[in-house]
Amino acid sequence: MLSWIEAGFEPPKRQLKSSQWIGLSGRAYALEQQDIGDFVLNGADLYLIARGNSVLWVGCSLDLVAEPAIRLRFRKAMARADGVFRLPRPHMDDERFSVIADLEGALPARIDQAA
């Protein structure tokens, strides 16, 4: 009997889910939900690590390289997290810092706000 690999089949592609979060400013963010078991920090893309409705950490891989204190917060967040969400890299560094500050106090949008 052939395995699915030998038969030329590919596993089904995981469908990416979008999740709406509302920042402190009231701005809505469409974040891409990641699988917490196998996600990888990708360059300057921003990641929100959460437990339920609480944001535990927001940042990118560049932040982890630059600051030991941020690495410690990231490790603690990963130990408690039940969700990881990705936001494509903002175009400018100033915008990145603003988005991080806005998302640190974010909450998931209610269903009637998500549209």
Your description of this structure?
The chain is of the alpha+beta class. It has one domain. The chain is built from three helices and six strands. The chain has a six-stranded antiparallel β-sheet with strand order 4-3-5-2-1-6, with helices on both faces.
Question: TL;DR of this structure?
Answer:
The chain is of the alpha+beta class and 115 residues long.
Layout of strands and helices, then pairs:
Blueprint: E1 18-22, E2 28-34, E3 46-51, E4 54-59, H1 61-66, H2 68-80, E5 83-87, H3 93-103, E6 107-108
Number of helices: 3
- Trace the largest sheet across and list its strands: 4-3-5-2-1-6
The average pLDDT is 85
Cα-based radius of gyration, to the nearest Å:
16 Å
Q: Which percent band covers the strand fraction?
A: 25-35%
Structural class by sheet pairing and helices: alpha+beta
Percentage of residues assigned to helices: 25-40%
Which of globular, elongated, flat, extended, rod-shaped describes the shape? globular
Would you identify the regions where 5 or more consecutive residues have pLDDT less than 50?
Answer: none
Order of helices and strands: EEEEHHEHE
Query: Total strand count, please?
Result: 6
Largest sheet: 6 strands, antiparallel
N- to C-terminal distance: 48 Å
